[in-house]
Structure formats: structure tokens, C-alpha cells
């Protein structure tokens, strides 16, 4: 099971957080801070796994992360997930973002948090991996995007009237 | 005008979408919080609008703010509103917000049920998809219950996109609503073979998650998964399945054997590292579960280790890390194969990556041996010096201590070295683990007596240099060490060279800056040192020194009297007054040393950490019971109306009551005392506990002299290295000596020398530098082994421990809403609901029968093996299966009804048991007699038992001691005899049961198999023989029974075989626990010296009854009866050998006459064969010769004749008393028919 997926930048500012277990907002912020603290002090060329922080589940869990430019992508998982598998999944996630945003950068994530969530929802659901095939993910995301666009048109009409 | 302003502000608000909000926050970096609070106010305004688009926009912004840590739960209702929008765009925003901030405590969730159901059945697949995604994050038990059926229907949706989401969310539903698991499982299983790979993967995912928590329920799916594993090409699915197999193999070793081959194939073929790694992991799991069952598993181990080495050597840090991780799993079972890679692992200690270093440290823990411990620790010490960052250094420190102290200091050959290491570790700056070092120092100094002298010297140095440790406030953690140092110096002060100096060091003003608990120890141990100093100077003509010491204490202690710490203050003022008094005496020249020393006399023994917990609760002590019933509230209410009818003063009533109670209590106490006196389990006033700790002759053990001229006083200098050198030299010397010896040997025997010489020296060759005895930790007598690793009762997965193979019952259907029939009408659903009820009934009853049969088969089989007559097994099983069950019962009841006609021979031989007093045994065994004939079937004898209970209410004890002769009905032995006697056409034999009830109470029933497996271990028959007794324990209660301990009171002749090291009164742990209604068999070995007389052994079974609320200790007394026939082995004998035996004239004869036997002759023979282990040698009409042999080689021959209900038995044996007893037992068997 995946317990949480966090994206934050080099300064620890959260860019997206998805918790698959309930925590209060304060705890969530603490977890993000703690995770950032653990991850940010690691060198570039060390392994991408580390024992979980104290807040999320303790020793059962692992943090698996990747660092891209200004962003850290951190998955907190328990022992049922394959470490290397999750690393691949992070890669798929980032590549998908890259395709959907066309050369994704931190700003895209900042301004389109909802879209990031929607893409993630096609990959991971309730802490379990739903789909790992990138083209399938993109197809579904785009189909929903199209639906949204057709609705937005209808919705914007009255605004223009005003 | 006003309207215009309002309209304008609406427009502005309306304009501010998520992007604007983000931009705004970024532009207000200085006053972010303030800006956001204004934004939240705006959002609150927006949420009041009727326009759903405005609301959705507001909710979207809230989602962002939630990520930043703002509580948005106040908008929960608005989120629900947005969720229920008909537009996909808004719906998605609503569900996203809900998934981020709804949880079980959100009360508006219950409003969503119908909305979600509507979305689930929406024609638009993305509406359904969004609802499923959202629901997966905030599903509650109520939602799960209400929607389970809808989701289950979606599992068969036409679109794979919906199917896979529905399958995946089922896991969450199961967690919240475990009742749904069984009805949904068949369909879930179906989805494992879905044409769409995504759905398949989802199903695998869910089942793996389920199986991981409760693997045993999913073993039946193994073949299906095996098929998937060999056919699937999806690495994700493969990884999941392979991981699942890793969880299943420990439960089913056969699965492991099947897995090895395909997994090794995958290891060789795959290019995906993730898959390779998981394969290796599972192969390791398989090998661990097989451990020794596979002949050629060394090849697989080699393959794994070799692949892992490649991973570890890889430049990719991730692979390196995982390689080490997997390596540590192999280490547990196959340390040898890992140890050869020590170089590689030590290399990893130098890695720049901390995670990798930590993993390597873990591995080192398992790799140390006596030989390399010093070397490895030296390397670690180097790392300690180099390490920057306290966490890693602390980790190193704990690892060093772990490595050294593991399995009771198994690998330490030189404790002086270890003490030096500990002292060196105290120089670590800012470590948190001072207490760890301290406890090690204490432990070693207390338990290794030989090291105390050295330890005390080191500790004295430490105390002397305490300022170095405490100089820096940052180093606070380490000052714990001083606690240990002070205590060791005080307690073992007789080893101190200069106690005066240490005393002075302990009373320095600087000490007052230490934490209170350490100061307290200082003060207390200063007093101990004072006593030692006094004793040293005792008898000297000049009492100057002693008086100076007193003065020193009197001068320094006031500092501690002023301490803010209560403990320090109290101890200091006590001791100060004492010293003042002593000083007075000293001035009068009174000798006080002895009295002062007496204050601290006696030695403290180490006590095991769990000792207190393990003190068994004595019988009759119910810790949960009230000592005085508390006045309950309801009682006080009740009392008022009572007073109306009965107005006597409550006082009087009360006092009378207590009087009775006291009498009663006193009586009970007396009874208990008596019971305890007779019970070997109670600790009596015997000094038995002492003897264990009288470590014999420590003083005589030669301690190797170590050159102590090396300056120990400079704590800045590392000194443990010298031991390494020393040790090397020593080992070299030993080696040389050994070589010399070997050379000598070589000269003597040239041929064999070569083999011994080659190769590195083995573990055993290294002799410890000092002979140390490690004092064992004290445990209370009769401590019960307890397992503390009970599952977490809060684990949600416990509820999912559900048997999935059981057919569905009618009541288990998922709740379906009746007013929406179209949901119900899914074809699959119909099938389930219609076909289930009749099937259930049929199957369950069938299952029961089968189970019963299986059980019997099992019993049968085990007995079969013992008798080593495997060739007849099949025939017998067939016979057994075809036999109806009723006859067994009727036979039993018949027997139960038959009154015992004669008293048994047991009483005669009772005194052979040494501990049993004959006065107790004889009256007890008489009332027991009728019970012997009780059938196994408890139901049929229930009322009878009750009657008996009434009769013996006072003799409660005896009720439990239902011992048994095992002359009983059996069911299978008859066949043996038939085969022996070659009579095939006679009427079928009545079934005979092999098990008799040994004892039972309301919790447990013990049944003992009559036909013990008997064998002797030694060729010499005169020596001890072993008897195996199989006992079936059946849990009759609805509580969990655990920690069963089986114990008997040994007699001179018969002893229970206990594991090595166990005392003669220790019980044996029954190697299983019993869930309600389960029975299991355990075997116990007894050694018997003389077999010519029957034996009776008194025993007790103690166990813990664990129910939901409480766990209580129970015990059950029983008597094990070894009859003489139980020492006989069915041994076939040919007629000519038999004739020779009779002719030899070595045998003494005896005979027996039985009247009124009306059973067919072959039944009679069968009974003798079955119950008394004879075999028929020859049979002619109504006359038969039979033979058996005792475990000690006595021949027993019988000639059985029958005519007219009279049976005459002529018997011959070379041991008359054995024969007599066997005949008595024969008589008894037939007296019961």
C-alpha cells in the first residue's frame, strides 16, 4: 500500500500532497516537514530509499523518492510494495506530467494542483496502484479534459452575456 | 449604486480563480497568513452564492489551501453540494476536495450515500470513475455497507476502466465492512482472469493486500496464482504475485518446492531489476521456509547470493541498498554463505550513503564470530571516530553494543577488552546512549565475576576523570555512565586498590552538577566505599586514616543534603548522621567497621527483565476479583426499598457476614496451604532457588594475567587495540602449540595429519582468554513461558481473517436496497442468492462428515505408523470409512452402563511411586473406578457426571483426577488380530477406541492413546527404556488456551524426559496453543527402569485461558497409568520358534480363568491383541496361542482356550511378576465386557 504521495520543492514548500490515511492538517504539515528534512539532506548520489519518518507508520514504512530539478517526489509505502517498482512508478508519474503539461516545470504544478491530482488519480487509487501504462493514463486524462472543456464552454457563455 | 458595488465585488470574487489565488499568495510573501485569511473570507462569501460554478471555484481554492495546512472542514457541506453538481467539471472538483479532507469523523458524509450511488450508476463512465476515486479515500463503514452491493455490480461493468477501479476499491470496502468479503470474493477471484490486464492487475493487487495480512485463507488460490505467474508478462503483476508467494510459502512448504524452478528461471531470464530482486527475495523466503527439506537448495542459495553480490557491487546505490537488505534475510538461515562476502560488506561501511552503511551494519551483526569480533569492532570503532552526525554515530554505538552482547556475550572471548571498548565509547561526544553503555557496564560487572577487579579499576579511573565527561553540557547523555561507574566501584569496592581516592573523587563539589539520580547513587556508594575504607584500616594501631575518611564525608556530604533532589537529600542526610555517629564511636576507639560493612552485606543477583511478569499467579488468587465488593450505585438505590421490608440494623448483618467470611477464609487458607504443600508447583521454604547461582568455584578459575602497567589513567588514549594485538598473539601462540601437538601427532600417525592441518581454524578452536562464568539472570521459580507478541487488537486486518472457502450462507448476502430492483437484478447476484441456501446445508454437513473422517484417519495413521504395519493401511481405512458411526456410541454406552465387577490390580502396586503417599492414593482410586468406564462421548455421560459431581462436592480435587486404565474399546486393532489369526469370514468386529479420557474439566479434555509407542533406546535391555505417551488435548471452552505446560511428578522408576538443562520439577511446554474447539496431539517421552510392575504417575497440566476480557490460569490434575501391557510390543512369532521357547523351560507359568464371557472367540482374541499387544501365533478352533515381548525382552506366551463362556488362559513368562500383572490386567479388560 502507498500511504502518502508528496511533492515539495527544494525549500520544502508543498506542491502536492496526497494522504491515503487520514491525518489532521497539522499532522500533514508536520509529515511534510519531517519528510523534507529527511530527504533534503541526502546527497544526490545516494540511494533513493530511506526508513520512514516517525510520523507515518514508523519502521514498517519506507520513503522512496526521486529528485527532479527543483522538485522532490516522495512516496511513502509499506512493505508490500516493491522498492524498485515504486521508483519506476515515480518515473512514469513524472513522464506523464511532462506529457500532459508539455515540458512540466514547478510552476505548472503550482498553478494546476487540481490537474496534478486528476492525473495521479488515474495512476494510484486509495493507496493502490491502478495503472502503470503511461499511454492508458494519458488517454483517460485527455478524455476527461475534453469533457471538461465542452462543459466549460457552456458554463462560460452566461459570463460573457453579463 | 449599492447594487452596483455588490455586483462589482461579486465580479471580482468571481474572477479570482485558483491561479489568481496562487499568484496572490506568491505576491504576498511577507504577510501570507493575513492574505490567506482575507481569501478565506472571500471564499466564505462565494460559498454563500447560489451559482454552483462560483461554489466549485471556491471549493477548488479550498483544496489548495488545505494542502498548505489550513483546516477547511467547515466547508464540508459546500463540498457535498459541489459533488452533487450534474456537471462533470464541478463534480470532479467536489470529489477531489472531499477526498482530501473528508474522513470518518466528517458528519456530512452520511448525506452523500445517495449521491454517490447515483454517480456510481451514471451512464458516464467518468462520473462513475470520479466517484470511485473519491470514495476510495473517504469510505466509512456505513458507506461501505450501503454501497458494497453497488460496487460489486460494477466489478462486472462492461468498461474495463470502471471494472479495475471497482475491483481496487473493494479492498477499502472489505477493510471497513468485513462482512462483504465472503460474498464478494468469488467475483474478485473471477477478476483474476479478466481479459483486461489492468483489471487483472487490480485484482491481483487486492488479493495480495488481503493475503499479506491473513495468508492462510488464501492458500487455495496458490494454483491460480502459479498459473498467472507463469503466463503473465506484466512485471507489476509478476512482482505482486511473487511477493504474495513469499508470504504464502511459510504456510505451505510444498508450494515452495514448486516455486523454486520457475523463480530461478525468471532470475536468469528477466532484465528488469525490480523483478529480479523480488524473485531473489521470494526464493530466499522459500528457502527459509524449507530450511532443510530440500536436498539441492545450496545451489539456489548460491545463485541468490551471487546475484545479490552483483547488486551490491553495482554502482547504482539503490541496487546496492536492496542487495544488502536481501542479504540480511539470507543471513538468518544461511550465515555461512553470507560470511564469505565479509569483505564486500565491510567495504560498504565506507560508503558515503548512510542508509547503505546502516544496512551493512545490520549484516555485520549476524556475521561476527568469536574469531572476528575484535577485528570487526575495531573497524567499527574507527568509523565511530570518523563519523560526523550524531545519528549515525549513535547507530554505530548501539550496533557495537548489540554485536558484542548478542546471545549472552557469546562471541566475547576477552571481557577486559569489552570493558575497555565500553570505556572508550564513553568518550563519544553528545551521544544519547549513555544509559546503554552504563547498563552494559553494570551487566558485565555483575554477571562476569572474574572481570570485576578489572572493571572496578576502570570505573575508578572514569570517576576520577569524571570532569572530562561532564565538562560540556552537550555531553549530558554520557554522564549516565557515571551512574554505572559509581555503583560498580561501590558494590565491588573490595577490588579497589585505593578506595580512599575513589571516595574522594565521588565527593567532589562538581558532582552536584550531575543529574539527581546519579548523585543519589554517588552518595549511596560513597557510604559503601566508606565501609570498605573503615574495614581496611581496622586493626591498625593508628586510627588516623579512618578518622580522616569520616571527616571527609562529614565535610562533603552537607553539599548533597542541600540538594534539590529529594532522593539525594534523603540519602545524604541519613548517611551524614550515620557518619557523625561513627565518628563519635571512633573517637572513643570503638571498632565499627564490621557493623558498617554489615549495612551493605550480601550480593545482588541479576534478575531477568521479565522475571516479575513471569511470576505465576498462585491458584486461588483471582487478581480481578474484588477483595471487598464495592458498593455499586444500583445497590444503594435498591437498598432503600429493602429497608421498608426489613428494618434490622445493617450493622449487625454486616458484622455477622464478615465473621462468617473470616472463618470461611481461614478455612480456605488452610486448605490452600495443604494443597500447596502437596503440590510440587509451589515454592516452598526450601533453598532450592539459591543453588543455581552458587557459581561453583569461580575463585579457582585461573584468570590470565594481563599486563596492567599500560597507563590506564589517560582516558584520552584508545587502549582496546592492545587487546586485539594480545588476542592475536595469544591465538597465534595457541595455534603454534596446536601445531606442535599436531606435528607430534603427525609423527605418530602420518596418514591422518594432513586433513587436520589444512584450512582455517574453526570456531571451536578459539579458547577464551579468561574463563568467565556468565551468571544467569534470576527468574522466579515456576516461571511460565509467555509469548508477548500478541497481535495488535486494533489492526483493521484482523477483521478480515475470514475463511473464504466456506460456502456462502444466506445471511451473508450483501444488503441490497429493495426499492431499486434493477440493481438487484444482475444475473450473477440472482445466482448467488438462489442457489446458496440448499447448497450450504448439504455441503456443510458433508464437510463435517469428511472432517470427522479425516480426523479419525489421522489418528489412525499415527497409530499405524507406530505399529509399523503400513501395508494394511488401505484395507483398514476402507473398513473404517464404511463403518457407521452409531455402533461406536452404542458400544460405548453399553460399556459405560456396565458396573465394574472387580477392583483392579492397581492398588496393589501403588507404593512403587515414591512421592505419592499410599494413604492418599488408595482412597482416591476407589471412587475413581466407576469413572474409568466413562465413554469418550461427553454428551451421553453428562448427567452421570453431574451426579458424580454432587456426590463428591467436598472432594473437589478428586473430580479432576479422572485417571484411566486403558483397557478400553478400540476400533482398529481388531483387524490386526484377524490378519494374524487368518480368520476372515467371521462376523465383523465391534469397533474399539484407542483413546481414553485422561482427565477433563470445563476447559480442556485430555485423552490418552492406549497403545503407546514403546521402544528402547539402548541395546542393553537392563537399562532404561523409553515410553512415548500420546495425549490429545481438546479445547472444550470457547476461549483460547495457551501456554500449556505438562508436568508429572516423577517416581523413582518412571521419569518424564525433559529437555537438557531443565530441572526435575520443570514442566514441558506443550508445543501448540488451542483455539476454541480444536484438539491437537502431543507426545511425551517417559523413561522407565523397571517394567515388571504397573506405574501410576500424578501430573498436572497448567494452562492459560484467554478470553476477550481476561486471561486466567487454570490447572488440571491427572494420573497417568502405565500398565504392564503398555510395555509389551506386538511382536510376531513363528510357531516353531514359539514351540522352542516353551520347550526351553526358562519360563514360569501361571494361569487365569474367566467366567461368563459371552463373546465370539475371535473377538476375544482381537481384544487381547489390541489392548494387550499380543499377536496370535496359532489358532485351532477354540484354542489359540499368543505371543508378545516386553521392551526389555521378556517373552510372554499365552494359551487361550474357551468353552461355554469360560475362558482359561495359561501363561508363561520369564518374569513372574510381570506375568502376574499382565494377567491381572487381562482379567480386568474382560471383566468390563
Task: Please provide a brief summary of the model.
Chain A: It comes from Carassius auratus. Chain A is an alpha+beta fold.
Helix-strand layout with pairing:
The complex is a heterodimer of chains A (162) and B (1233).
Chain A: E1 2-9, E2 14-19, H1 25-40, E3 49-51, E4 62-68, E5 71-77, H2 83-101, H3 106-111, H4 113-123, E6 124-125, E7 128-129, H5 134-161
Antiparallel strand pairs in A: 1-2, 1-5, 3-4, 4-5, 6-7
Chain B: H1 2-15, H2 18-27, H3 32-48, H4 52-67, H5 76-83, H6 88-101, H7 113-120, H8 125-138, H9 141-154, H10 160-176, H11 181-191, H12 197-213, H13 222-231, H14 235-248, H15 253-269, H16 273-290, H17 297-313, H18 317-333, H19 335-339, H20 342-348, H21 354-367, H22 373-386, H23 390-409, H24 415-425, H25 434-447, H26 452-464, H27 466-470, H28 480-491, H29 499-506, H30 516-537, H31 544-561, H32 566-587, H33 593-598, H34 611-614, H35 633-645, H36 650-678, H37 688-691, H38 720-748, H39 750-757, H40 821-824, H41 827-867, H42 873-882, H43 886-897, H44 906-909, H45 918-932, H46 942-951, H47 956-960, H48 973-981, E1 995-1000, E2 1004-1009, E3 1013-1015, E4 1025-1035, E5 1040-1048, E6 1054-1056, E7 1068-1069, E8 1079-1088, E9 1095-1106, E10 1111-1122, E11 1128-1129, H49 1135-1143, E12 1148-1154, H50 1161-1172, E13 1175-1180, E14 1183-1190, E15 1195-1203, E16 1206-1213, H51 1216-1231
Antiparallel strand pairs in B: 1-2, 2-4, 3-4, 4-8, 5-7, 5-9, 6-8, 9-10, 11-14, 12-16, 13-14, 14-15, 15-16
Helix pairs in contact in B: 2-3, 3-4, 4-5, 4-6, 5-6, 6-8, 7-9, 8-10, 9-10, 10-11, 10-12, 12-14, 13-14, 14-16, 15-16, 16-17, 16-18, 17-18, 18-21, 20-21, 21-23, 22-23, 24-25, 24-26, 24-38, 25-28, 26-28, 26-29, 28-30, 29-30, 30-31, 30-32, 31-32, 38-39, 41-42, 48-50, 50-51
Amino acid at each position: 500500500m502507498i500511504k502518502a504521495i508528496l511533492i515539495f520543492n527544494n525549500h520544502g514548500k508543498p506542491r502536492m500532497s496526497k494522504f491515503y490515511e487520514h491525518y489532521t492538517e497539522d499532522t500533514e504539515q508536520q509529515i511534510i516537514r519531517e519528510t523534507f528534512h529527511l530527504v533534503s539532506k541526502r546527497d544526490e548520489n545516494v540511494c533513493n530509499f530511506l526508513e520512514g519518518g516517525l510520523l507515518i507508520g514508523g519502521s514498517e514504512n519506507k520513503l522512496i523518492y526521486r529528485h527532479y530539478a527543483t522538485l522532490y517526489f516522495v512516496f511513502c509505502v509499506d512493505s508490500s510494495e516493491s522498492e524498485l517498482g515504486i521508483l519506476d512508478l515515480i518515473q512514469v508519474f513524472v513522464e506523464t506530467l511532462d506529457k500532459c503539461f508539455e515540458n512540466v516545470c514547478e510552476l505548472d504544478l503550482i498553478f494546476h494542483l487540481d490537474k496534478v491530482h486528476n492525473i495521479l488519480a488515474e495512476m494510484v487509487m486509495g493507496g493502490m496502484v491502478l495503472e502503470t501504462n503511461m499511454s492508458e493514463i494519458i488517454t483517460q486524462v485527455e478524455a476527461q479534459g475534453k469533457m471538461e472543456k465542452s462543459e466549460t464552454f457552456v458554463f462560460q457563455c452566461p459570463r460573457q452575456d453579463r | 449604486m449599492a447594487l452596483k458595488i455588490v455586483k462589482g465585488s461579486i465580479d471580482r470574487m468571481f474572477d479570482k480563480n485558483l491561479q489568481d489565488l496562487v499568484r496572490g499568495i506568491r505576491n504576498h510573501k511577507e504577510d501570507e497568513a493575513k492574505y490567506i485569511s482575507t481569501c478565506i473570507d472571500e471564499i466564505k462569501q462565494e460559498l454563500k452564492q447560489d451559482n454552483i460554478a462560483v461554489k466549485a471555484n471556491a471549493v477548488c481554492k479550498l483544496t489548495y489551501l488545505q494542502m498548505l495546512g489550513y483546516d477547511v472542514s467547515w466547508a464540508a457541506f459546500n463540498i457535498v453540494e459541489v459533488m452533487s453538481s450534474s456537471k462533470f467539471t464541478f463534480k470532479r472538483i467536489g470529489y477531489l476536495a472531499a477526498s482530501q479532507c473528508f474522513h470518518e469523523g466528517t458528519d456530512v458524509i452520511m448525506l452523500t450515500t445517495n449521491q454517490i450511488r447515483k454517480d456510481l450508476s451514471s451512464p458516464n463512465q467518468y462520473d462513475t470513475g470520479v466517484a470511485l476515486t473519491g470514495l476510495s479515500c473517504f469510505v466509512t463503514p456505513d458507506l461501505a455497507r450501503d454501497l458494497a452491493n453497488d460496487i460489486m455490480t460494477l466489478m462486472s461493468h462492461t468498461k474495463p476502466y470502471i471494472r479495475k477501479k471497482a475491483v481496487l476499491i473493494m479492498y477499502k470496502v472489505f477493510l471497513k465492512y468485513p462482512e462483504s468479503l465472503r460474498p464478494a470474493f468469488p467475483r474478485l477471484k473471477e477478476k483474476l482472469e479478466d481479459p483486461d490486464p489492468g483489471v487483472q492487475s487490480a485484482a491481483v493487487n487486492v488479493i495480495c493486500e488481503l493475503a499479506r495480512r491473513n495468508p492462510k485463507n488464501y492458500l487455495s488460490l496458490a494454483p491460480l496464482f502459479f498459473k498467472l505467474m507463469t503466463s503473465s508478462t506484466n512485471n507489476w503483476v509478476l512482482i505482486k504475485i511473487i511477493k504474495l508467494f513469499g508470504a504464502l510459502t511459510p504456510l505451505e512448504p510444498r508450494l515452495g518446492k514448486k516455486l523454486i524452478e520457475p523463480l530461478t528461471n525468471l532470475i536468469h531470464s528477466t532484465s528488469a531489476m525490480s523483478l529480479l530482486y523480488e524473485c531473489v527475495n521470494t526464493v530466499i523466503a522459500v528457502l527459509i521456509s524449507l530450511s532443510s527439506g530440500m536436498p539441492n537448495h545450496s545451489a539456489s542459495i548460491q545463485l541468490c547470493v551471487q546475484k545479490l553480490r552483483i547488486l551490491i557491487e553495482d554502482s547504482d546505490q539503490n541496487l546496492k541498498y536492496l542487495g544488502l537488505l536481501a542479504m540480511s534475510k539470507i543471513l538468518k538461515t544461511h550465515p555461512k554463505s553470507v560470511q564469505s562476502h565479509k569483505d564486500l560488506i565491510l567495504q560498504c561501511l565506507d560508503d558515503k550513503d548512510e542508509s547503505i552503511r546502516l544496512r551493512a551494519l545490520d549484516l555485520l551483526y549476524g556475521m561476527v564470530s568469536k574469531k572476528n569480533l575484535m577485528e570487526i569492532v575495531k573497524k567499527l570503532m574507527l568509523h565511530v571516530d570518523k563519523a560526523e552526525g550524531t545519528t549515525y554515530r549513535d547507530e554505530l554505538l548501539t550496533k557495537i553494543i548489540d554485536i558484542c552482547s548478542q546471545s549472552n556475550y557469546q562471541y566475547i572471548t576477552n571481557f577486559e577488552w569489552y570493558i575497555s571498548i565500553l570505556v572508550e565509547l564513553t568518550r563519544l561526544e553528545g551521544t544519547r546512549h549513555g544509559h546503554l553503555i552504563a547498563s552494559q557496564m553494570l551487566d558485565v560487572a555483575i554477571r562476569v565475576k572474574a572481570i570485576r577487579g578489572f572493571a572496578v579499576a576502570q570505573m575508578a579511573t572514569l570517576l576520577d576523570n569524571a570532569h572530562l565527561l561532564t565538562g560540556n553540557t552537550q555531553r549530558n547523555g554520557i554522564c549516565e555512565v557515571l551512574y554505572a561507574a559509581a555503583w560498580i566501584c561501590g558494590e565491588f569496592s573490595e577490588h579497589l586498590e585505593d578506595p580512599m581516592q575513589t571516595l574522594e573523587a565521588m565527593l567532589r563539589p562538581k558532582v552536584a552538577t550531575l543529574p539527581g539520580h546519579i548523585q543519589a547513587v554517588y552518595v549511596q556508594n560513597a557510604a559503601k566505599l566508606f565501609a570498605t575504607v573503615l574495614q581496611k584500616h581496622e586493626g591498625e594501631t593508628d586510627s588516623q586514616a579512618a578518622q580522616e575518611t569520616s571527616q571527609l564525608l562529614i565535610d562533603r556530604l552537607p553539599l548533597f543534603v542541600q540538594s534539590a533532589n529529594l532522593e539525594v537529600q534523603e540519602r545524604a542526610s541519613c548517611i551524614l548522621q550515620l557518619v557523625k555517629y561513627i565518628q563519635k564511636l571512633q573517637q572513643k576507639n570503638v571498632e565499627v567497621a564490621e557493623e558498617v560493612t554489615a549495612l551493605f552485606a550480601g550480593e545482588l543477583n541479576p534478575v531477568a527483565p521479565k522475571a516479575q511478569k513471569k511470576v505465576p499467579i498462585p491458584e486461588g488468587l483471582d487478581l480481578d476479583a474484588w477483595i471487598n465488593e464495592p458498593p455499586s450505585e444500583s445497590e444503594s438505590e435498591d437498598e432503600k426499598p429493602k429497608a421498608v421490608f426489613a428494618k434490622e440494623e445493617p450493622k449487625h448483618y454486616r458484622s455477622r457476614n464478615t465473621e462468617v467470611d473470616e472463618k470461611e477464609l481461614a478455612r480456605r487458607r488452610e486448605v490452600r496451604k495443604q494443597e500447596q504443600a502437596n503440590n510440587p508447583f509451589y515454592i516452598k521454604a526450601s533453598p532450592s532457588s539459591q543453588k543455581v547461582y552458587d557459581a561453583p568455584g569461580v575463585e579457582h578459575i585461573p584468570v590470565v594475567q594481563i599486563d596492567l602497567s599500560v597507563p590506564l589513567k589517560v582516558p584520552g588514549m584508545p587502549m582496546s587495540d592492545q587487546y586485539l594485538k594480545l588476542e592475536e598473539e595469544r591465538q597465534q601462540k595457541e595455534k603454534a602449540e596446536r601445531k606442535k601437538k599436531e606435528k607430534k601427532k603427525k609423527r605418530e600417525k602420518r596418514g591422518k595429519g594432513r586433513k587436520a592441518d589444512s584450512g582455517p581454524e574453526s570456531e571451536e578452536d578459539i579458547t577464551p582468554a579468561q574463563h568467565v562464568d556468565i551468571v544467569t539472570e534470576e527468574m522466579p521459580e515456576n516461571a511460565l513461558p509467555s509469548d508477548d507478541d500478541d497481535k495488535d487488537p486494533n489492526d483493521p486486518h484482523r477483521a478480515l481473517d475470514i475463511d473464504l472457502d466456506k460456502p456462502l450462507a444466506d445471511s451473508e448476502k450483501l444488503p441490497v436496497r429493495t426499492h431499486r430492483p434493477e440493481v438487484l437484478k444482475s444475473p450473477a447476484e440472482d445466482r448467488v442468492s438462489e442457489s446458496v441456501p440448499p447448497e450450504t446445508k448439504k455441503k456443510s454437513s458433508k464437510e463435517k462428515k469428511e472432517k470427522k473422517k479425516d480426523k479419525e484417519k489421522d489418528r489412525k495413521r499415527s497409530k499405524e505408523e507406530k505399529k509399523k504395519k503400513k501395508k494394511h493401511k488401505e484395507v483398514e481405512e476402507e473398513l473404517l470409512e464404511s463403518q457407521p458411526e452409531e455402533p461406536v456410541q452404542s458400544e460405548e454406552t453399553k460399556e459405560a452402563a456396565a458396573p465394574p465387577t472387580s477392583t483392579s490390580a492397581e492398588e496393589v502396586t501403588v507404593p512403587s511411586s515414591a512421592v505419592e503417599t499410599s494413604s492418599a492414593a488408595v482412597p482416591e482410586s476407589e471412587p475413581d473406578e466407576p469413572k474409568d468406564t466413562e465413554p469418550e462421548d461427553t454428551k451421553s455421560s453428562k448427567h452421570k457426571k453431574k451426579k458424580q459431581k454432587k456426590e463428591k462436592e467436598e472432594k473437589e480435587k478428586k473430580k479432576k483426577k479422572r485417571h484411566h486404565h486403558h483397557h478400553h474399546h478400540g476400533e482398529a486393532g481388531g483387524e490386526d488380530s484377524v490378519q494374524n489369526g487368518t480368520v476372515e469370514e467371521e462376523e465383523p468386529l465391534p469397533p474399539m477406541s484407542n483413546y481414553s479420557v485422561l482427565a477433563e474439566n470445563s476447559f480442556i479434555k485430555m485423552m490418552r492413546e492406549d497403545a503407546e509407542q514403546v521402544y528402547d533406546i539402548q541395546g542393553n535391555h537392563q537399562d532404561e527404556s523409553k515410553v512415548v505417551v500420546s495425549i490429545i488435548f481438546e479445547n472444550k471452552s470457547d476461549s483460547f488456551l495457551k501456554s500449556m505446560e505438562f508436568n508429572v511428578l516423577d517416581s523413582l522408576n518412571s521419569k518424564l524426559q525433559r529437555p537438557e538443562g531443565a530441572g526435575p520439577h520443570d514442566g514441558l511446554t506443550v508445543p501448540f496453543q488451542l483455539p476454541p474447539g480444536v484438539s491437537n496431539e502431543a507426545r511425551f517421552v517417559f523413561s522407565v527402569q523397571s517394567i515388571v510392575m504397573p506405574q501410576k504417575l500424578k501430573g498436572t497440566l497448567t494452562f492459560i485461558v484467554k478470553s476477550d476480557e481476561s486471561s486466567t490460569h487454570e490447572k488440571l490434575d491427572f494420573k497417568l497409568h502405565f500398565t504392564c501391557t503398555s510395555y509389551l510390543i506386538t511382536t510376531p512369532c513363528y510357531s516353531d520358534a514359539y514351540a522352542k521357547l516353551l520347550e526351553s523351560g526358562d519360563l514360569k507359568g501361571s494361569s487365569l480363568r474367566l467366567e461368563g464371557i459371552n463373546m465370539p472367540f475371535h473377538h476375544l482374541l482381537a481384544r487381547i491383541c489390541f489392548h494387550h499387544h499380543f499377536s496370535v501365533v496359532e489358532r485351532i478352533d477354540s484354542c489359540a496361542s499368543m505371543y508378545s515381548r516386553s521392551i526389555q525382552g521378556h517373552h510372554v506366551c499365552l494359551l487361550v482356550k474357551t468353552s461355554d463362556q469360560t475362558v482359561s488362559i495359561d501363561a508363561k513368562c520369564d518374569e513372574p511378576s510381570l506375568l502376574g500383572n499382565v494377567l491381572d490386567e487381562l482379567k480386568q479388560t474382560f471383566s468390563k465386557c
